[in-house]
Amino acid sequence: REREPGRERRKRGSLVAEAGQPDPSVPLSGVSCSGCGAELHCRDSAAPGFMPAEKFRSLSGGLDGAEGLRGAVCQRCWMLAHYGRALRLELPAEQHRLVVSAALRRPPRHGRGPLLLYLLDVLELPDPVLPQLPALLGPDVPAAGLLVVGNKVDLLPADSPGHLGRLRQRMAEACAQAGLRRAPLVDIRLVSAKTGFGMEGLVSRLQRSWKCAGDVYLLGATNSGKSTLFNTLLRSDYCKSRAPDIIDRATVSSWPGTTLNLLKFPIINPTCDRIFRRQERLKGEAAKTEDQLSSEEKKLLNKLKKEGYLVGEVGRTFERQKPSTVVDFDPDMLSYSIDEDPKPASKKCERREEFTYNEVKDARWCYDTPGIVKENCVLNLLTDKEVKLVLPTTAIVPRTFILKPGMVLFLAALGRVDYLEGEKSAWFSVVASNLLPVHVTSLSNADAIYKKHAGHELLRVPMGGEERMKEFPPLVPQDITLKGIGTTEAVADIKLSSAGWVAVTAHREEKLLLRAYTPQGTTLVVREPPLLPYISTVRGSRIPGSAAYRTKKPPSLVENLKPTGRR
């Protein structure tokens, strides 16, 4: 192998598995990781909350003891945040459920049960965990209300006017099918926790309907965006004004199951005066044009517009003036290079700001719970690098192809759709991460293409060549029969587990026989009606000599901001 550059060698050295050494003789700290909520310790490197023994001792060995660990993060959170790399932990799916279930069964505080804020990824509809919610709650959970929030709407292009209303209707249908009848359904909202779209409306809805009546629990499947929502609410008008300075932000990563225990922040009491001041701020911001934004605000807005189709802004009405510069936790203290000796703990920020007793004695709290693991999901089969390619993080650009009978479409090596029988050509629109390749070939060549290129660059995911594919489950087929409803409206989506979906559009009354494949042990869903029925119209002209159309990216929409030039 060619010699690696020094910088790469150092990087590899700092990532070596889980580089720090455990020490089973050291007691547990009693202090939670500020990124995932797991208790910090150095006893077992495979358990949540692990920190290398030398680091653990350097932070907890001072006069303040365990207090020196406050604000620190475990090795797993550090790897996720700085390298996008998830360490393998021994945390069974059932343990996630036990943590969530036990939290929900706490005796009601303030004489009222909690509000359950269930977050689902709109790309995953029908949500695989939603039907499990009634069993998770059980008859002994005193839930006072349920608010369902569809996240990641910024990733989906508008296929027609009113597409958000259609998405909301699909969510309502999913709730009804899941049998969510025990907890009263307060509302259904659409947001992007990442770009801020819909977040001010969600805060207003929570303050208007729930006020400060009880605690709030964020629930949802792994990777639905709960930690991002938690972080966005933390810097909004929903939490106490001092909370962002005291509460550490949850670790956000594409790796499923990031939050391992309960993180929380105190909810602000929405008094009449606060509601009035908040509404005045929102009115003032809605009257602005892009020209009136500061250069920093324009820079952020342009960045978000590149990343999502729907963009909003999350502001703060009750920001507290900081008396002095806040010194963040020193990240150098969490570098786990095996080539370096442990550094002495910094004393610059020993005294962290804390809530006073009076501030929290009657507080209502917003809790971020561990994500409920999705079973039969393709993400469970992938490495961290592969997950980052599969999960979309920027606006999805649909890719449309026109196929004749006898043609095959591959979505990486994670899904395949064969057009077996039909009288005419049909349109197949891929809605998936822009980083996943799509390959079209003939039915006679498809098996040879998969055998030769699965694990390699042409199909890209999985990656790792023949050795990787030896351990990867084979693709298994499912036959599908569809009848077209018109050349501009898809009849169904073929959802290839969590890798994405293919919307099928065919001539009216045209019968199609398809065969779709996903890896063994994963779920293939035929979604009728489709989520974006007019997605095949979001395309450019056809590429000569090809089955593909040129892609077309619709413009972004900014919420509550007047276009430039309007007053």
From TrEMBL:
Domain annotation G: ranges: 216-266
SUPFAM superfamilies for the chain: P-loop containing nucleoside triphosphate hydrolases
Region (Disordered): 1-25, 545-567
InterPro entries referenced in this protein's UniProt entry, alphabetically: GTP-bd, Mito_transl_resp_regulator, NOA1/YqeH-like_C, P-loop_NTPase
Chain ranges passing through the membrane: none
GO molecular function: GTP binding
Residues of the NOA1/YqeH-like C-terminal domain: 428-528
Top-level division of the source organism's lineage: Eukaryota
Record's protein name: NOA1 protein
